[in-house]
Amino acid sequence: MVCRSGTVNEGARFRLVEEGQGVAYRDRWCGEVREELIGRRVRVAGWVHRRRDHGGLIFIDLRDRSGLLQLVIAADKQPDVHTRSQGLRSEYVLSAAGEVVARTPERVNPNLATGAVELLVDQLEVLAAAHTPPFFPEDDLEVEETLRLKYRYIDLRRPRMYRNLLLRHQVVQAVRRYLEEQGFLEVETPILTKSTPEGARDFLVPASG
Predict the structure, then answer these.
(1) What digits encode the pLDDT tens for the residues 26-56?
(2) CA-CA distance, 71 to 59, in Å (whole number)?
(3) pLDDT 10s digits, 89-145
(4) What is the four-CA torsion angle of 10, 66, 84, 36, rounded to 10 degrees?
(5) Separation between Cα atoms, residue 99 and residue 114, nearest integer Å
(6) Distance CA 79, CA 7 (A)
(7) DSSP assignment of 27-85, as one string?
């Protein structure tokens, strides 16, 4: 999977192509869904951050690297989707589509960038199920470093870790852009040794005379 940073252009979104048909599993990042999209149909994808079952309504906070978006699944409007959503758990990976609607005043969350809207889901696809993780990817949880390193793929979902990755990406890209503008070529060479996987030979940098 290729990751892109920053604002995503209309023609540069992730695609999941199923055999025999082209299906977009995302055409908006969760954090992009704002009030100007009310009334429009969008598709988002991400991890189940939280799930709340209120009987006829199921609320899901869907998380991707851009933020959170509240999904609403109504039993009276989409009974099949509502039934399937009852088995969802934290860290399941979903693709969901529906209409962006304004939240009722009592449900507006001023602490959330997308807190004025929600997605009324009419299509739902589970892209990957998940076991209960050993810890949840939240910054305010104290987790032992050994456990974080053992489950690195979960640790990297934490907002702080994502910000670190984003900063590193931006610094490296800035350096590369500057050097390219100065006429440099980027050539990958080993640094003393370059280990390669699957038991391949190591390439050694010869010592200068």
Answers:
(1) 999 999 999 999 999 999 999 999 999 998 9
(2) 6
(3) 999 999 999 999 999 999 899 999 999 999 999 999 999 999 999 999 887 788 898
(4) -60
(5) 14
(6) 35
(7) SS-GGG--GGGTT-EEEEEEEEEEEEE-SSEEEEEEEETTEEEEEEEETTT-HHHHHHH
Q: What pTM does this model have?
A: 0.74
Which of these, 24, 107, 5, lies nearest to 64 by C-alpha position?
5
- Per-residue tokens: 6: 């920053």
Phi-psi region of 186 (alpha: psi -120 to 50; beta: other; left: phi over 0): beta
Six token digits for residue 193: 């040794």
Contact predicate 36/76, CB 8 Å: no
Q: How far apart are CA 116 and CA 88, in angstroms?
A: 24
Cβ–Cβ under 8 Å, residues 49 and 90: yes
Q: Which of 34, 169, 27, 14 lies closest to 97, judged by CA?
A: 27
- 159 Cβ contact partners less than 8 Å away, ≥ 6 residues apart: 137, 138, 139
Judge whether 48 and 91 are in contact, CB under 8 Å: yes
